[in-house]
Amino acid sequence: MNDNVITTKGLCKRYGAVAAVNGVDLAIKRGEIYGLLGPNGAGKTTTILMLLGLTEASGGTIDVAGYDPTRNPLEVKRRVGYLPDSIGFYDYLSAKQNLRYTGRLAALRRAEIEKRISSCLERVGLTSVGDHRVGTYSRGMRQRLGLAEVLMKRGEVAILDEPTSGLDPEATFELLEMIRSMKVDGTTVLLSSHLLDRVQAVCDRVALFSDGQVVLEGTVPQLAERVLGGGFIYEVEVDAGDMEPVLTAVPGARRVVKGFRGFSVLAERDIRGDLARAVVASGAALLRLANMEPSLDAIYRHYFEEHAHGAA
Amino acid sequence: MARRSGSVLTGAGTVFVKELADHLGGARIIVLQWLVIIAGAGAVYTAIQDLRTTMGQDPFLFLRLFTQAHDPLPSFVLVLEFLVPLIAIGLGFDSVNSEFNHRTLSRLLAQPIYRDALLFGKYMSGLSAIAVVLLSLWLLIMGLGLVTLGVPPSGEEVMRSLAFLIVAIAYGGVWLAVAMLCSVIFRSAATSALTALAIWLLVGVLWPQVVQFTSSAVYPPTPLQILFGQPNPDQLMLQQTLSRFSPSTLFGEAMLGILHPTTRALGLVFVSQLEGAVMGSPLPLAQSLLLVWPQVTSLVAGAVILFSVAYVVFQRQEVRA
């Protein structure tokens, strides 16, 4: 309990009859990077807003850095930096002026604000454009400025909602590097995303959201173990569309899921040879057959495939 | 409900300073101020022309600067009655929804402040901007009066014109609260502005007609009263009561009491009530203030009520856009 920075029990949020968040239990340890993953509308942002006290929970208990956000929102907000989903700044003010405003709202001393602004802008690489109006900034620069604002608060926790959405691969990589560097400072990072593979790289632990509930939780290898049962994942790319029956028929193939490029096969043992033979025997050309590291993406898809079948 | 801890107004000062700087540095206030200056200059200029001919007969020469109307131009007070709402709406119609639309709201509210501070800071900054506009106008008029009339204002005239300033700011406060309420309710700035302007047209411009029609429908004059060409007193009472729901009426009545020291009553007076009154002699300042006290408190109360409604709506709103 003591080394948990964020604890929720049975967290609920209902909008009328619809439950946006339905019984979420989280236990996030101090100093880890924790990912909330899931499709859009799964309840990630609502959970985050409740953690910050920006939305009142319909049920359940929350503890953030030792405070209840409903009862003590100011204490929580003093300790938690927040990068919202779609971040906006006052376009007619410069980056420094924007940061100065939030610094004053956080009741920091003037000299302290200036010190933190220059160090934070330095860290996110915006020093040279710190006096430019934010209206001239690109999407990636705004996102970095948002991160600078979070850094400036020097909170125990940083909550980043979809920090990489809308960024090009280069900017995403840079941003994730910055997020990783926050961990070095001892900040607990909670980040949400629907881009699974990108986040996999930085998260210590993840929680998979679906329909307002956490369906899976743990480190990526743990999840792989749980969902894939320690099996192997092969990516099979062929020049024919409908290969699922053929691949499923291969002895040892437990499940076949169609992906963007080809099929993802979950197998109990190494069946690469059998797969290749089955594909060739069916008359299609085998373009690629690869042994995959268990990625979040694969875990996610196999998990929902399993549940779709379970429900059917 | 859980009790909240910490001061409700933490950060309100910061919001106030930032918003006031935005107001005073913005193009909007320049446009609005010039609008009032141009409209007001005509009124005051013609007033001065008139006053030159009657100089020496009037003990309250300076106050006439505010109230003298010269056809076809309205008096300066009437210009303000019309334009102060426009300034207030112009400054307030997008104060909250622009934070939504620029997606700055969730970022602001993630700072250690309550929503109260944001709304209150914004309201006070708008009110201060209105005060700055009106104060500069007031100074202009006083200066113009000094130069053109060549007579310094008496102490009482200064006091009365200061009272005018304060009432005008309170009047602006009501309309600012209307505009902010619209900005909280409507996410689109255009809808908010249109709604606020529609309310202004209804309450400020069309209200007298609506009131007259309604009250004569409720209390039609009896045949005897028609015969003598006299109005129905019940109708007049209702008309007055209804018309006082409009801030413009309240402002107009308060101005009458303050700037025309001879005003002894606002509204219906029966001949029996005038017994022993020395007609045409001015009231002392304190008595005039007493006379308009209900109007002024009603204006302030109206602003407070509207602000509270805006506050409640804002508190219940979801942060996410």
The tally of domains of chain A stands at: 2
Low-confidence runs of at least 5 consecutive residues of chain B: none
| Average residue-wise pLDDT of chain A | 87
Mean pLDDT of chain B: 88
Q: Which class of the largest domain in chain A in CATH terms?
A: Alpha Beta
Sheet with the most strands, sense and barrel status of chain B: none
In the sheet with the most strands of chain A, the strands line up as: 5-6-7-3-8-9
Described by the principal axes of the CA atoms, the overall outline of chain B is globular
| Quaternary assembly | heterodimer
Strand content of chain A: 25-35%
Please describe what this structure looks like.
The complex is a heterodimer of chains A (312) and B (321). Chain A is an alpha/beta fold. Chain A folds into 2 domains: 4-218, Rossmann fold; 224-311, Alpha-Beta Plaits (2-Layer Sandwich), CATH 3.30.70.100. Chain A has helices spanning 44-52, 73-79, 95-105, 110-124, 139-153, 169-184, 196-200, 220-228, 244-248, 272-281, 296-311; strands at residues 4-15, 18-29, 33-37, 59-64, 80-83, 157-161, 188-193, 205-210, 213-218, 232-238, 253-258, 263-267, 286-292. In chain A, helix 8 runs parallel beside helix 11 (296-311). The longest helix of chain A is centred in the middle third of the chain and has 16 residues, at 169-184. In chain A, 44% of the residues are buried. The mean pLDDT of chain A is 87. Chain B has one domain (12-316). Chain B contains 13 helices and no strands. In chain B, helix 2 (27-54) runs antiparallel to helix 4, helix 4 (76-92) runs parallel beside helix 8 and helix 4 (76-92) packs across helix 12. Chains A and B meet through helix 1, helix 2, strand 5 and helix 3 of A and helix 1 and helix 6 of B.
